[in-house]
Design brief:
The chain is of the alpha+beta class and 258 residues long. The protein contains 5 helices and 12 strands. The protein has a 12-stranded mixed β-sheet with strand order 7-8-9-10-11-1-2-3-4-5-6-12.
């Protein structure tokens, strides 16, 4: 999968004054939101894509199917779905186990980010997570094939905090709002969302559509790695019914409204 920087011992300790609630918010966001790729990635109508991927997180492995149309996007997993309406910025998160869903929006997520940023102000998080690091982008040697497409290798890193190892298919063009949309998925990570925002700006410079991505995130307490590899890519119009909510599911309050 390319170069991975091994974990290093760090003297920094997580500040007690951040509070358990804020710590859990960040760690939950790292685990859940990183599994929702391609949010708000709207291609041209004639370029609708269905991408089936194998997702590995820790010791678990699952299947994810992503539907990308002109106005809608849906990422479907074994336990949850994420539905996005591009024109309004509305996002719907579906929990299949509990048969529940909630809705949120760009405005609500931005407000949540502002609140979390205030909670973390002066906590030293920026230093511990290398939020001030500049991106290091590398074009790496080698070629691999994913879902029948030849891919080229690249890496983006921010110190020891974040490394993105990716394989992109030059013959597939990234949808117009691909990277801008992905930034939104990381808003709940508070100040760390800025780190990912910078990463996606760098990814815009990489030619082609990424069919394999590995996110390696290091904190003073843990190291997480999420790998998504496309196993099938289908082109063609996607029925509107794909983006409908499952029947009988109960709506609950958005956690970002609190």
């Amino acid at each position: 999968m390319g170069r991975i920087i091994p974990p290093r011992r760090r003297r920094d300790k997580w500040p007690d004054r951040i509070g358990r609630r804020v710590r859990m918010q960040i760690l939950s966001a790292v685990s859940a939101i990183v599994l929702a790729p391609l949010l708000l990635a709207a291609p041209a109508p004639s370029q609708d894509l269905t991408v089936v991927s194998k997702v590995t997180f820790g010791n678990s492995e699952s299947k994810s199917t992503h539907y990308i149309a002109s106005d809608w996007s849906r990422t479907s997993g074994e336990q949850s779905d994420q539905i996005v309406h591009y024109p309004t910025g509305k996002m719907i998160f579906v929990d299949h186990k509990k048969k529940e869903y909630y809705e949120t929006s760009l405005e609500e997520m931005s407000a949540y980010l502002d609140r979390l940023t205030r909670d973390l102000k002066g906590s030293g998080v920026e230093k511990m997570f290398a939020l001030e690091e500049r991106a290091k982008v590398e074009k790496l040697p080698g070629k691999r094939t994913f879902a029948g497409y030849d891919c080229e290798h690249s890496s983006i890193s921010f110190g020891d905090a974040l490394e993105i190892d990716l394989w992109a298919a030059p013959s597939l063009k990234a949808p117009p709002r691909y990277y801008d949309g992905r930034k939104l998925a990381y808003a709940a990570m508070g100040p760390m969302g800025k780190l990912f925002e910078n990463a996606f700006e760098e990814m815009k410079k990489i030619k082609g559509f990424p069919l394999s991505t590995a996110f390696i995130l290091r904190t003073p307490m843990s190291r997480t790695e999420t790998v998504s590899e496309a196993t099938e890519v289908r082109k063609g119009s996607i029925p509107a019914s794909v983006f409908e909510l499952p029947a009988g599911y109960r709506r609950k309050e958005s956690p970002y409204a609190k």
